[in-house]
Amino acid sequence: GKLKSEMYQSWANYYVKFIKAYEKNGIPIWGLTIQNEPMAVQKWESCIYTATQEKDFLKKYLGPTLQKEQLGNKKVIIWDHNRDLMNQRADEILNDKDAAKYVWGVGFHWYEDWKSGISMYDNVRHVKESYPSTNLIFTEGCIGKFNIDSLKYWKMGEKYGESMINDFNNGTVGWTDWNILLDETGGPNHVQNFCYAPVIADTKTGELTYTNEYYYIGHFSKFIQPGAKRISCSASQGTLISTAFVNTDGKIAVVVMNKGIKSIPYYLWINKKAVSVTSLPRSITTLVVE
């Protein structure tokens, strides 16, 4: 279904009520997305917005209503769907100055690979090149069709590492998982959409399993601090991918990932100084330079 046009203002008012109710109870709201996956027809809760509908709802109703209610500091995220169509959605909304003034960023997911098996990282870069002052944020990613027997499948962690490195290198400012903790069924979920998560809890025994997804994420979240700035970083071998950030304390964090089956010796080279390092097969490493 879609939002009835006569309900646009009522829906904008509901966002305000939601934010104020949470903050009244001590839960600050940093920002909001207009609609999760606005082009997805799902068996769970969904609402379809064309690019024009999302633009009009934002510029005529949601944006002005947030401003009127002194909530204009909340970061509004558009799109919030896959990389495949993020360029078209960004063009429609960000080329309208009356809509664009309310936009903090463009959100995106990673599920476009269901079409061809290929992740469309270049689309992230294209949006950043076209709209350099607009933030890009990865708002959801998970691996579906949960199977407890595949809990330690190494490629799941590698998907996280590859996505994070490519998305950051293409201008993304933040990256979030879909769900940090699920139970031994990949739920709970009211429509049986069972998925993997970085941490799986056995609700019968109380045991927690920290998957390789968890540790791959940690190679970024433990060492790249809030306020860090991405710096230029390139690999000289095709089987290595990397990204690098300088933190506010001046320390440099370099993440190097090797999806190959062979060890790869290389030099970490910064300002005419180098140190010899070896990247082990199927590994991810974070190097901190002080």
If you had to describe this structure to a student in words, what would you say it looks like?
- It is a single chain.
- The longest helix has 18 residues, at 51-68.
- The chain contains seven helices and 14 strands.
- With 290 residues, the chain is α/β, with parallel strands linked by helices.
- The chain has helices at 8-24, 51-68, 86-94, 97-100, 121-130, 154-169, 212-221, and strands at 31-33, 75-82, 105-109, 135-140, 172-175, 181-183, 199-201, 208-210, 229-231, 240-246, 252-258, 264-270, 273-279, 283-289.
- Helices cover 29% and strands 25% of the residues.
- Helix 1 (8-24) packs across helix 2.
- Helix 6 links the parallel strand 4 (135-140) and strand 5.
- It has a five-stranded parallel beta sheet with strand order 1-2-3-4-5. A four-stranded antiparallel beta sheet has the order 9-10-11-14, covered by helices on one side.
